[in-house]
Amino acid sequence: MQIAVASGKGGTGKTTVAVNLALALAEKGPLQFLDCDVEEPNAHLFLHPSLGEEERVNMPVPVVDEAKCTACGHCAQVCAFNAIAVLAGHVLTFPELCHGCGGCTLLCPEDALREEPKEIGTIQRGHSGNISFVHGKIKIGSALAPPIVEAVREQARKEGIVIIDASPGTSCPVVAAVKDVDYCLLVTEPTPFGLHDLNLAVQMLGKLKLAAGVILNRAGEGDEMIEEYCREKGLPLHLKIPFDRRYAALYARGSALVEEYPHWREAFRDLMREIEGRVGK
């Protein structure tokens, strides 16, 4: 079963939930953790895996063969991202804008374009006890995160439990991380901003036809707005984590709730049983 943990906005405690769920379940058997927040992966700060060598993630970008090119402009016409331009009889390429679709190479009538790999990020694998760990990192200056997210997702095992920590928000990297999972946990906070962005995330999952539930972090004042929203949308509110200074101190030390408080270990295991019941696995 693949379970994604996402959030409409940053700072809601998404990684906190993903890490605690993984640690609680790992005591019962092996599982896999995929950190797909490739622009700022930080699950390793809490799981402390022993990471191995980095593996490059490449994207194909076009290179022009000047001897064959007639500057007909077909390549520029097909590129939806303006990564190719024809000026004064010369073809200019802009690899930073390229999305690697290959359309220009495929449709060039003179076969004057070839593709070369361009490094856009890396992935690393490791272990932390019963947890098999993978995370990706985007290369500084690269604009495209989805291919790196997809490279991390490709590491997913075909059996057992896979927990996926997605990027915050509802943009393309999040879609790449959560698509085709069995269940998605949306972590939110009891604020107007939290509610607004939770609604965006729910709409995104609706488009993807994914089953989802909500976890309310930093619960306390303002919980009613989230509870009412969940009732209106028919979303299960699985868990409420109180706003507690002790929990913030744990986070600052790189520790986890389930390691310090046994009742949270049981709470996250109960959460897993709820998810299994909802997806029929």
What is the tally of helical segments? 11
Structural class: alpha/beta
Report the sheet with the most strands, covering strand number, pairing sense and barrel closure.
9 strands, mixed
Measured as a percent range, the helix fraction is 25-40%
In the CATH classification, which architecture of the largest domain applies? 3-Layer(aba) Sandwich
- What is the CATH C level class of the largest domain, in words? Alpha Beta
Rg calculated over all Cα atoms: 22 Å
Net shape: elongated
Uncertain parts: none
β content, as a range?
A: 25-35%
The SSE order reads: EHEHEHEEHEEHEHEHEHEHHH
CATH topology (level 3) name of the largest domain: Rossmann fold
Distance linking N and C termini = 8 Å
CATH superfamily placement of the largest domain? P-loop containing nucleotide triphosphate hydrolases
Look at the structure and give the mean pLDDT.
95
Number of strands: 11
User: Please, how many domains?
Assistant: 2
Fold and architecture overview:
Helices cover 36% and strands 30% of the residues. It has helices spanning 14-26, 44-47, 74-78, 103-107, 146-153, 172-178, 192-208, 223-233, 245-252, 257-260, 262-279; strands at 2-7, 31-35, 50-64, 84-87, 90-93, 113-128, 131-138, 162-168, 183-188, 212-219, 237-242. The protein has a nine-stranded mixed β-sheet, sandwiched between helices. A two-stranded antiparallel sheet has the order 4-5. The termini are close together. The mean pLDDT is 95.
